[in-house]
Every structure is written in C-alpha cells, then in structure tokens.
Amino acid sequence: MPFLDWVNKNQAKDTSREVPYHLLKQEGTYGDGSENLLIQGDNLLALKALIPFYAGQVKCIYIDPPYNTQSAFEHYDDKLEHSQWLSTMYPRLVLLRDLLAEDGSIWVSVDDNEAHYLKVLMDEIFGRKNFRTDISWQRKYSVSNNFKGIASIVDRVLCYAKSDSFIPNLLPRTADSIARYSNPDNDPRGPWKAVDYLNQASPEKRPNLCYPITNPFTGEIISNSRKAWKYEPAIHSQHIAERRLWWGLKGQNRTPALKLFLSEVRDGMTPHNWWPHEEVGHTDEAKKEGIALFAATGVFDTPKPERLLKRILEISTQPGDLILDSFLGSGTTAAVAHKMNRRYIGIEMGEHARTHCIPRLQKVIKGEQGGISAAVNWAGGGGFRFLTLGEPAFDTDGRISAEVRFATLASYIWHFEIGEPGQQVFDKPLLGIHNGIAYYLLYNGILGDRRPAGGNVLTNAVFNAITEVFPHDGPKVIYGETTRLGSARLTAEGITFKQIPYDVKIR
User: Fold this and answer.
1) Would you tell me which of 67, 181, 263, 440 could form a disulfide with 191, CB atoms 3.0–4.6 Å apart?
2) Spatial distance between the Cα atoms of 386 and 62, rounded to a whole number of angstroms
3) pLDDT confidence band for 47 (50 / 70 / 90)
4) Over pLDDT 90: what percentage of the chain?
C-alpha cells in the first residue's frame, strides 16, 4: 500500500507517543451531572488524557477539522501550510483510533482541498481495508450565475471503521419511500409496489428463463422475444398461486409485474453516499440554527446542520452509545448526541467552549426546539460536566504530580497492564484481577498511612493486611514506593513488585 510522505512526518508519528498526559479538572456540572463531558483545551492533550479512561470505548467519532483552505476564520487559524496540516492531523487521528471501539466508526468532514490527502493518511492509520465510504454532502442548494469556473457545492465525509465488527444501521424508511407503495386492487395483504418481471439478459443467454406466459385476462400468450423473465418456471407458478402477478386493473399491461408488499420489506433503508440537502440540511440551514442560538454575531463561518449529524449517528450508533468530537466548534455534535440520547465527549480549544458550547448545551437541557428537536421528540433533560486541562500527570523525569489522586493513577496503571480502561471503581488497593493475575496499588495513603513504614511501602504488615482483606491465590503485581520484602519472599508469594514512579509506564 502506498504511503503519504511530507516534511516532518517522522516527528508527527512520534507526537502521539510523546505528548504528556494531563489531568482533567472538573470546573462545573450542568443539569443532572451525567457522564457527558465538555472539555476545554488543546485537543491533542485532551485526547491523550482520555486514553486511560476511554480507550476502545467510543462507538462513533465525528470531527470537522479546519479544511486548510488558506482562508481566515474568526474562530480558527485555517491558514496552515499543507505539511503542517498533515502533521497536525496525524497524531490526533492516531489517538482517535485508540479511543475507538472495535465495532466503532470515525467520520471526518473535509473539502476537496485536502480530501484525497486525508484519504491516504487515514488508509495508513486505520487500514485501507477499513475504509467504508466517501460521502458527498450537498452543502449548497444553488450556485450564483456570476460564478466563474466549476462551482463546488459538496463537502466530503470520509468514513472508516475500526474493524469488520462495525455494522451500519439501516436508515428509517422515509415518507417518500412509503408513498411508493399503494393498493389499487385492495389486496388484503396491504400496500405493494410493482417490480419489473423482465430480466435484462437476452433469451439466447438465459434459455432457462424463456417460456410462454399467459395473460389471465385476455388469454394472450406472451413469449420471450427480446428479454428473458427474471424467474424460473417453478417460481413463476408459485407467483401465480400466490396471486402476485400484476397485469393492470383490467389486464391491459403487455407483460406482468411482481407485487412487492410493504409488509415484506425490511424495516429500514440501506444508507448510501449521496446526501442531498433536502435530507440532511445545508450550510444556510446551519447558519440559521446558529443565529437562533447565538445571534448573528456569534455564528461560525462553516457550521454543520444538526440534520447532518443526526444522519451520521443514525447509521453508526444506538441510544446510550458514546460519541466523541474533538473539534467541537459551536457544539453541534454534542447537542445532537444529547437530543438523541447518546453519551458524548466534546473537546474545544478556544474560549467559545464557554461562550458557545456551554450555553448551547444548557438550552438543550432546557428543551430547546431548534434543529432536530421536533424530529426526535426532544423535550429536555440530561446534563454534562465541564472540564479543563490541568497539570501534566508526570514531569519530564517521570515523577508523578502531587495533583494525581489514587483513582487517576490506578486508571493509568490498569490501562498499561491490561490494555483497556477499567470499568470498575478504583477505591481500594486491589485494582482488579485479569487473566488470573491480581493487581494492587499502594499510593496516596490508600491504607490510611503515608509514612515509609506504612501504607505506600510494601512491608510484611502491609502485605498481610491487603491479602487478608483482598486475598488472591495466584500471581500478584503490586505497585508501591518501595518494598521491604526480600526477593525470596516476593518469589514465594508470587509477587512482581513495581516501584512508583519509575515503573509506572503509560501507553
């Protein structure tokens, strides 16, 4: 598979590994204080901070990064040189991949300026076999007659899966689709539509599908002269017995059609990659949504309509699934996820995390009726927590910040040892048992004593205490400041001791 190369690519590839872990500080709670998160801060640092807690947990990622169009935007610096844009995207996409669930998918909005480069970049990071589709979204519904050249009226949305475990949902059947079914002959089986009975193959190529059919109204025998039938004689006889052939109300049609009943088709429609503005909205619609929320002076230059995000979440998620947007902008993804009863994490760097995202989500909680609200019967409720980036969890020498609490360090250690976030509450020395190995952490006085002779040091008394309360008959990994047990005792007890901070490694 070919790879994309650019200036400083090797440095970009190292960035996701070298970026420091930061703590997340809770600044406020809105509504019911649910697990929905709004994070203000650099999205590279925020994504890395989320890894120990959410790696492999996110069902759908949607991002709308700056398009690198050499345009000046009020809220973003979109004048990145091409190689710099690629170097910016690479480590973020790597971290997003690590956060994505095995049955999850990522959707990226982009325009023609970078779409093809982004496709090759994502092939490298997510695997070309995991590419699912390149969607054309009709963002404009008209073109000015004064425009010179070839006007672009679509943006692209690239979709990749984490693995073959991703199975897209069917879309709800539309009113137009249902309207194609009718019941002109009052068939007791309900509405149906006529399906062509002719095959496109010639009689010479499909002789087994060439046989005479009798029109029951006129008695006329219809032979294959130009095209074969779609069905073999036995199936045709079954159709006659089931009264599935349609010759018109008075038998006036030259050839029959097959009745396909609405009750027999699957409950939904297959998604495709052409999304017209009538179905998912356009930029003018998105700007009007923004004006209603923020007034004209607070509207973003390139907003996305709520209907566009609704379509993505309908295809890729179920209620209760976790959604992530690390370029949250004015908060559209979080607002749509909230209204559709999905959990979400939104990351936004600028001050508009406070001036746009918080107020918008507060309005959603109160039952705001713009965008998709009526379509999903939104009536309000729920909540979110607002967080900011704190100090690095580890300094350049690997020492642990004094701000790191027990549960935070436990999450880091569990993720390093097991490879996935823990679903348990970390509030005791025994972090958990995995593949027969028990993992313990002695830190921050979890036993109520921070003196060297006590809680954070593995002494005989501490070992006896933790194994009496949290026994495990098998191998043990114990993290602590130091150990007073000799190597022979450690071996006899099946203990692998790891010293804090030197043996605390973070993925």
Assistant:
1) 181
2) 20
3) very high
4) 63
Nearest partner of 304 among 46, 37, 47, 62, judged by Cα: 62
Mean pLDDT of 365-380: 97
Tell how many helices (H) and how many strands (E) occur in the chain: 15, 21
Digit-coded pLDDT (tens) for 229-274: 999 999 999 999 999 999 999 899 989 999 999 999 988 999 999 9
CA angle, residues 102, 106, 112, in degrees to nearest 5: 150
The region that residue 331 occupies, defined by phi over 0 for left and psi between -120 and 50 for alpha, beta otherwise, is left
Residue 337 has pLDDT above 80, yes or no: yes
The residue to which tokens 């982009």 are assigned: 110
Whose tokens are 């929320």? That residue is 293
| Pair 346, 334: CB distance under 8 Å | yes
**CA 391 from chain center: how many Å?**
28
**E strands in 187-291:** 192-196, 213-214, 221-222, 245-246, 257-261, 274-275
Q: Judge whether residue 390 has pLDDT over 80.
A: yes
Q: What is the pLDDT of residue 451?
A: 45
Task: Please name the residues in contact with 473: beta carbons below 8 A apart, sequence gap of 6 or more.
Answer: none
For residue 239, which amino acid is it?
A: H
**How are beta strands 274-275 and 257-261 bridged, if at all?**
unpaired
Report residue 506's pLDDT band, with 50, 70 and 90 as the boundaries.
low
State the Cα–Cα distance between residues 304 and 379, nearest whole angstrom: 22
Between residues 292 and 397, which one has the greater pLDDT? 292
Token look-up 């590419």 returns: 131
Cα–Cα distance between 393 and 405 in angstroms, integer? Answer: 10
In the chain, the domains with their CATH numbers are 9-169+270-392 (3.40.50.150), 175-264 (no CATH), 406-499 (no CATH)
Q: What does the alpha-carbon distance between residue 103 and residue 441 come to, in Å, rounded to a whole number?
A: 32
pLDDT at 79 over 80: no
Q: Where are the beta strands (DSSP E) in 306-429?
A: 322-325, 343-348, 383-392
Burial class of residue 211, CB neighbours in 10 A (0-12, 13-18, 19+) = middle
Q: How far is CA 190 from CA 130, 186, 246, 261, in A?
A: 41, 7, 14, 7
For residue 328, the number of C-alpha atoms closer than 13 Å in the C-beta half-sphere is 36
What number is the average pLDDT over the span 54-71?
A: 84
**Contact indicator for 311, 280 with CB cutoff of 8 Å:** yes
Angstrom distance (rounded) from CA 87 to CA 340: 34
Q: Is the pLDDT of residue 74 over 50?
A: no
- CA quadruple 222, 227, 233, 239: dihedral sign: negative
48 contacts 506 by C-beta, under 8 angstroms: no
